[in-house]
Amino acid sequence: MLNALTLRRAFAATLLSGLSVIGFHVESAQAAGCSGRVYWDSHFRGEAQHLRGDASYVGDRWNDQISSIAIYSGVWRFYRDAEFRGDYLELGPGNYSFHAGDAWNDQISSLRCVRPTY
Ligand SMILES: [Ca+2]
Asked: Residue 7, exposed/middle/buried by CB under 10 A (0-12, 13-18, 19+)?
């Protein structure tokens, strides 16, 4: 079970690594050990953005808009403010969905991968 999950994540990361990065300014592209996706809406819906490195600011379009996060690899910190400031939410591989009224819904302004995982 765990092996199958790990394999599936690795496969997804391989697929996604072929996609181009649009939108976020990637300051330090890291290897496949830091990979994920953020979504405009809850439940992994709406516009999506591939994560491959740190972003000191997610950009005007994405600022305070992220409502769900899929992390394929790495331990990531999602900050309330730009430049990795404010309190942060630390998340490892998994799927996370926020909803209206949740503390972290539509709050994230910067993000970074603090530890690669494989
Ligand atoms: Ca949103």
From this structure: exposed
Task: For residues 103 and 118, give the distance between their C-alpha atoms in angstroms, rounded to a whole number.
Answer: 29
Cross-strand pairs, 35: 73
Share of the chain above pLDDT 70, in %: 74
Separation of 3 CA from ligand 1 center, angstroms? 32
Q: How many CB atoms lie within 10 A of CB 79?
A: 22
Residue 2 CA, ligand 1 centroid: distance in Å: 31
Q: Mean of the per-residue pLDDT values for the chain?
A: 83
Alpha helix stretches (DSSP H) within the chain: 2-16
pLDDT per position as a tens digit, 85-106: 999 999 999 999 999 999 999 9
CATH of domain 2-115: 2.60.20.10
- The CA-to-CA distance between both ends of the chain, in Å, stands at 17
